[in-house]
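Incident review: delayed structure delivery

Summary: a single-chain prediction request sat in the queue longer than the usual turnaround. Root cause was a stuck worker, restarted by the on-call engineer. No data loss occurred. The affected request and its eventual output are reproduced below so the record is complete for anyone auditing the incident later.

Affected input:
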Amino acid sequence: MSPEPTTRNRTRWLPAVAIGLGAAVVVALIVVAFLWPTVTTSAKNVPLGVVGDSAAVSSVEQGLDDRAAGVFAVTTYGSRDDAVAAIERRESYGAVVTGRSPEVLVAGAASPAVSTILRQVAGGLQQQIAAQVAAAGGDPTYVSVPVTDVVPLAEADPNGSALAATGFPLTLGGIAGGVLISLLVTGVGRRLAALGVYTVVAAGAVALVTHGWFGILPATGDVAGLTAAIAVSILGTASFVVGANALLGTAGIAVGGVITMLVANPISAAAVPVQFLAEPWGQVGQYFVPGAAATLVRDLAYFPQADATRPWLVLVAWAVLGVVLSAAGHFRNREVIHLEAIEQPVPAGRRARRA
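Output delivered after worker restart:
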């Protein structure tokens, strides 16, 4: 007796075409999300200090308007030391010192792009002073406007590209950890324990690679603080993904990933100053995990005098939000991927209160 033929279900043509179109739209949105900040980037209202009397400050402002209109927002400082302190607190990206010994101060660790612009400003200022000296009958060849990098980048990362790229692995790592824990671990207590272990081990590994091995995050004298910043950066994303999954089910993983990767990451200003992004998105990005993480890691690595209160609070808030969402979704029926090798039987009487 011949076996009965088996039947297979096939997707209808219309849904198949619709799925293909939907996938294409998703790809287009991803491309837009990642390219939009780059295409719309423009330098504007970058904080810049000027040291000198009112006449000198006015002259510098006029020169900046002529060469880079709208790029800088000028703040006057009484001395070179005050300007340096402002740069070290990340209140300014550089400064122009006027007087008998003109000088341009930059901070390569704050933004290589702004430092490049300021070096061009130094060249223009030197030409302007040389023209004035020549008009007065002096020798313009002796005119020099030195450029001093107050907070230089590490020798292992002279262009700052590695520092800017560090934010993406932290974001991707947070998402990956959150997804794995969401899919493989059940129970609020066990998920939180897994998050804790993952965060500590991952942060230690990242700090070891970036600080100890590659040397792209110097963090002179505060390696523990830098490691803690990396940990809370990873935890903020992973906790949110786990919490969204607990509350919304499998769809929560997609929600957490989309918000973090496609919304928050492109406006994080990890590679450029906040002022370069279209307003108000640069500031908005600082209230998501990728933006706050990029700011905090840069502060602790190069600018210990900067006020890092806001990024700390933002990252802790996202981590706490994930825990709250996990607790809120505790009584939902959640499905995880069952692997016998990592599971243990639970008596029937304990299943209702398993944690």
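Verification: The chain has two domains: 46-149, 161-351.
Action items: add queue-age alerting; document worker restart procedure.
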